[in-house]
Amino acid sequence: MFSHLLSRLHPAKLATVVLLAAQMLGWSAPAQASDDPAAAMPPSNALITVRRALREFDRFLDHHPLLEDELRLKPALAGDQGFLKKNLELHEFLRTNQEVPAGLGLYPRYFLHRALLRQANAPLRYSEIAQLKDILDADPELELALVQKPESIRDADFLAAHAPLRDFLTRHPTLGAVFLPCRELPAKNP
Q1: What are the backbone angles phi and psi of residue 33, rounded to the nearest 5°?
Q2: Residue 20 exposure: Cα atoms within 13 Å on the Cβ side
Q3: What's the CA gap between 176 and 71, in Å, rounded?
Q4: pLDDT tens across 121-146, in order?
């Protein structure tokens, strides 16, 4: 059926035809936006480009903390033309770094993760903070509370009110060491 097309296709076009055929036959489902970047990863070169763009966005936001706070509270502002007209530096940055919106789509908790990383009392990698995914998925109200007030992750009263988060931090020593108040830290085995 496709043999006459396959004889004239380049490798990239061939891959596209194969993927389309697989989808038509129901062998694979189209990727959907998800909190799990692995569930909807673009090809590796595109992913590298997106991650590079997000690192550039990190540097931009490091110099614009008030703007970052606004975007954390309402991430959709990054695509709002009215907001961008009022924030010309952001508008220009996004115009010259067009992969950033795709990155924000792949990593919907990007702004929350950045805010939580700033609350840590020691350096953490994004992959470490991403371990919070399941607990945030299970409790959207917890996620909303942390978006609104990220410093709550270090508050003993907040952790007492959100026992699953406290227990999670206790079971994950890397995260517990940087977020749990001293009196909440699990005892080390001698």
Answers
A1: -60, 140
A2: 7
A3: 27
A4: 999 998 899 999 999 999 999 999 99
Distance CA 53, CA 50 (A): 5
Report CA-CA distances (Å) from 5 to 12, 23, 37: 13, 18, 33
Contact by Cβ (8 Å): 80, 94: no
Distance of CA 85 to the CA centre of its chain: 25
The string of pLDDT tens digits covering residues 79-107 is: 999 999 999 999 999 999 999 999 999 99
Please tell me the distance from the alpha carbon of residue 134 to that of residue 51, in angstroms, as a whole number: 22
In angstroms, the CA 117 to CA 36 distance is 19
The domain ranges of the chain are 40-106, 110-184
The C-alpha atoms of residue 109 and residue 132 are separated, in whole angstroms, by 10
Give the CA dihedral 39, 42, 47, 49, nearest 10 degrees.
-150
Enter the tokens of residue 21.
């055929």
Q: Is the pLDDT of residue 43 over 50?
A: yes
The answer to whether 25 touches 16, Cβ cutoff 8 Å, is no
